[in-house]
Amino acid sequence: MSEQFSEKPELLPFQQLQQQLSNYIRDPENRAYKPEHGLEIEQRRLDIYAELFFNNLYGLFSQVFPVCKAIIGEHRWQQICREFLVKHNAQTPLFHELAGEFLDFLDNEFSPQPTDPEFFLELAHYEWVELVLSVSEEEDLIACQIPWQNIDLTAKFELSPLALPLAYQWPVHQLAADYQPEEPEQATTLLVYRQCAQMDAGQPVSNIQKDSIEFIELTPLLYQWLVALNDHQSAESALEAISQGLELDQKALQEFAKQTLQQLMAKGIVSQV
């Protein structure tokens, strides 16, 4: 049997030129653009284009990850944005999806410095979730007002696609330039959701409020229950699954579950299937 070798095809001349130009734009300090005679670009124009390209990316990431930038500082933030540009091969040209590419870069290609905070990746993920929810085209659940005593735990409930239960090692919702705690002993569990703006009939367009991204702090048990809701045939079976082995008053637990569902249904976060 003859061996087969897979080699990358040699780039055509125009592809080599494109590659050389893109390498320079990504990393102008360490890459050169030196095409054949007649294909040169004035250095001033090259530098303007490279700067515009970087500034667009820098501006986008600064807008999506403002707390990350504030905590890590201007100089280091610029370094990280440049490192993304040099190392990461983005798979999308869409600006709102590039934030997800940045998160992938932080998780797989980023070279942190000793002075970078340990919570940096988690904080970036939390800020990215806010973007994902704000641009999501998923339909909102209809808010429902119902007395908690009338809620049937044997029914199946599901979370809104615009509500995400999240668990972090760090208190990402509290982190700021002036608040960077030591490693906490207990995980942070949150429900992050998009709160739809209420719109009354006849309300002037100028007075219509925008949707907002909100969060609710959860206990670890409540977090586990919300995660389990979609995978169980009833709210009751989900509750039983996460409370096994715990010495809890079942009647009090069920009343708490009903009251919690009532509050979440009123916000359009949970609905009965």
Automatic annotation (TrEMBL):
Pfam families xrefs: DUF2063 (PF09836), NGO1945_C (PF22106)
Domain NGO1945-like C-terminal per the UniProt entry, residue ranges: 160-196, 210-264
Putative DNA-binding domain boundaries: 16-106
Gene3D superfamilies, sorted: 3.90.930.50, DUF2063 (1.10.150.690)
Protein's UniProt name: Uncharacterized protein
